[in-house]
């Protein structure tokens, strides 16, 4: 599969990154407690397909529940543009809403994060 490089950032621009993904990728919308509140749309890729270009020192890390997921937020604007997901700790989940792309062209699947244990197998293949 041929990969395309997408650029993204947080709201204030302090955090900048690149991610390699298929040209016509499918993203996931999750209904878990955190994703539902912040509107995170997931593009999960292997770690070697993600590059943080700027802002390492401007990231805060938030963890809850199992403390496996690493939720990174910009210290300045508070935007969560990417994180290391519990479902794929060998990958990175990028917030599609933070990418410089046509948001209307993205295919979005629903993921039942409220029933995470029963649904997680649907995400394992992504990394």
Descriptive tags:
127 residues, mainly beta, Metal Binding Protein, Guanine Nucleotide Exchange Factor, Chain A, three-stranded antiparallel sheet, globular
How would you describe this structure to a colleague?
The chain has a seven-stranded mixed β-sheet with strand order 6-7-8-9-4-3-10, with no helix packed on it. With 127 residues, the protein is mainly beta. The chain has two helices and ten strands. The protein has one domain (3-120): Metal Binding Protein, Guanine Nucleotide Exchange Factor, Chain A (Beta Complex), CATH 2.170.150.70. Helices cover 8% and strands 41% of the residues. The longest helix has 6 residues, at 33-38. It is globular, with a radius of gyration of 14 Å. The chain has helices at residues 33-38, 116-119; strands at residues 3-9, 16-22, 26-30, 41-46, 50-54, 59-62, 70-74, 82-84, 91-95, 107-111. The two termini are 14 Å apart. The model has no long low-confidence stretch (mean pLDDT 91).
